[in-house]
Design a protein that fits this description.
The structure is a single chain. By secondary structure, the chain is α/β, with parallel strands linked by helices. The protein has a domain at 52-145: uronate isomerase, domain 2, chain A. It contains 19 helices and nine strands. It has helices at 20-30, 44-48, 56-60, 65-73, 87-97, 105-118, 129-139, 147-153, 170-177, 202-212, 220-236, 256-267, 274-295, 311-317, 332-344, 361-367, 392-405, 425-443, 451-470; strands at residues 35-37, 156-160, 184-186, 241-246, 298-303, 305-306, 325-326, 350-355, 380-382. Helix 11 packs parallel to helix 13. The N and C termini lie far apart (55 Å).
């Protein structure tokens, strides 16, 4: 049998860092940088209360549709995923699944998270499952592993949660009154429910929005006034970004009279046709863009997810349970028209464009150059690989497209887009991949071997660019 003793061990300190230069860039420049997680879906209540999780399953498997999809693919019954099996039984099934996730980012993330949060070096499999579960669950009862402890351990400086305009933001108010040392929690404005007029959720959303303002939203003008009022309230609590999770940007032509008629038709209980829906979406998105500019916010557009494809699962489990995929819409013309309209009025806010289909990488990387006008560094950004693309190949492709067609040095870097407090090693994953790209090219003589200068660029991408872009204190 061939001697394999010289092969590298798994997940050593030089993980993903293939050259000495990459290692120097990572350890001396990237690793010490704090984390600004400017888009995630963490529950504000659990941050405000410094929640402690009962066991590893509750913090690691509940709500994680990445893991759920892998388990379903392996043939694990739903009872062990979202069903009524015990937490230990669910964890055991996840441990059975992990060895089969080789070459999926879940394998790397799983072991990075065990190592960074719990100091567990064991490879997770059925043989190690019981010990891992009980050791990590015991540590979760300690103050060091409460929510605040977990965030501090990863050097997280800022988290921006994702919030509906009708949300009370009571937990953000609570944190404002009782600040968390070393950590900012800021809301983000997610008004998609008030754009998607053709969905069943539109009318109930209007009622909730009216209720929080103690008013009735009867007209299109009422809706815009309500969204503007809520944006001002969000801003008072530190909001500096909006976010939209849309299939595509709508940019149809419309008149105010047409949009008002469409709105009245819908609130009367009638349905709207596809053209009317697109006109309404276009109008509201445009008006929101002006509100974001007035507030000095960053608008984020997450485009291209084909959601809730499994109708049976949607009926039994609801949305966000792991039945989404990459869509294949054509984005270029509408995105250009949307931003061009705002830019023509001098109302185009800082904007981050995220695509879910890797076929659109060069489209988005070139699109941002159309509206970078010199008014701000990297005013229009090509956002990091997200969801199905937040893995090594997806990150490299996104950064290569941005490097080739824009300025990677102006990039605001990584985010988790996660519901889990154990997801922050994804920033480490990104930083290692980033340093490896630069390090390899430096060692090949494709860029100067000026480690201090390249190290500064690395630190900007990891932290300083985002701090400046969103206006957070450094």
């Amino acid at each position: 049998m061939k001697n394999i003793a010289s092969k590298k061990a798994f997940l050593t300190e030089d993980f993903l860092l293939e050259t000495e230069t990459a290692q120097a860039l990572y350890f001396d420049y990237a690793a010490p940088m704090p984390i600004i997680d400017y888009h995630n879906h963490l529950p504000p209540a659990e941050i405000a209360s410094n929640h402690s999780f009962q066991n590893l399953t509750k913090i690691w498997l509940y709500g994680d549709h990445y893991k759920w999809r892998a388990m379903r693919t392996l043939g694990v019954p739903e009872a062990y995923i979202t069903g009524n099996k015990s937490d230990e039984e669910k964890f055991a099934k996840w441990a059975e699944t992990v060895p089969y996730t080789l070459r999926n980012p879940l394998y790397h993330w799983t072991h990075l998270e065990l190592k960074r949060y719990f100091g567990i070096d064991a490879v997770l499999n059925p043989a190690s499952a019981d010990a891992v579960f009980h050791e990590a669950s015991a540590m979760l009862q300690e103050e060091s592993h409460s929510v605040h402890g977990l965030l501090h351990s990863m050097n997280v400086r800022v988290v921006c949660t994702t919030d509906d305009p009708a949300d009370s933001l009571e937990y953000h108010v609570q944190v404002r009154k009782n600040p968390i040392p070393g950590l900012q929690m800021n809301p983000s404005f997610r008004p998609d429910k008030y754009i998607l007029i053709d969905l069943d959720s539109f009318l109930p959303a209007l009622q909730r929005l009216g209720a929080v303002l103690d008013t009735e939203i009867r007209t299109y003008a009422d809706l815009l006034d309500a969204l503007r009022a809520r944006a001002a309230f969000f801003h008072s609590l530190g909001c500096r970004a909006s976010d939209h999770g849309l299939e595509y940007v709508s940019a149809e032509d419309y008149t105010d009279a047409e949009v008002e008629a469409i709105f009245r038709k819908r609130v009367s209980g009638a349905s709207v046709n596809s053209r009317e829906a697109e006109q309404f979406k276009s109008a509201v998105l445009h008006e929101l863009g002006k509100i974001y500019h007035e507030q000095g916010w960053v608008q984020q557009l997450h485009l291209g997810a084909l959601r809730n494809n499994n109708l049976k699962a949607m009926a039994t489990l609801g949305p966000d349970t792991g039945w989404d995929s990459i869509g294949d819409w054509s984005h270029a013309r509408a995105v250009a028209k949307f931003m061009g309209r705002l830019d023509a009025e001098d109302k185009l806010a800082k904007t981050i464009l995220y695509n879910l289909n890797p076929a659109d990488n060069e489209v988005m990387a070139s699109m941002i150059g159309n509206f970078n006008d010199g008014s701000a560094k990297g005013k229009i950004q090509f956002g990091s690989g997200w969801w199905f693309l937040d893995q090594k190949d997806g990150m490299e492709k996104q950064m290569n497209a941005l490097s080739n067609l824009g300025l990677l040095s102006c990039f605001v870097g990584m985010l988790t887009d996660s519901r889990s407090f154990l997801s922050f090693p994804r920033h480490e994953y990104f930083r290692r991949i980033l340093c490896n790209l630069f390090g390899a090219e430096m060692e090949r003589g494709e860029m100067p071997s000026d480690i201090p200068w390249v190290g500064k660029i690395i630190q900007d991408i990891c932290y300083y660019n985002a701090a400046d872009y969103f206006g957070f204190e450094k």
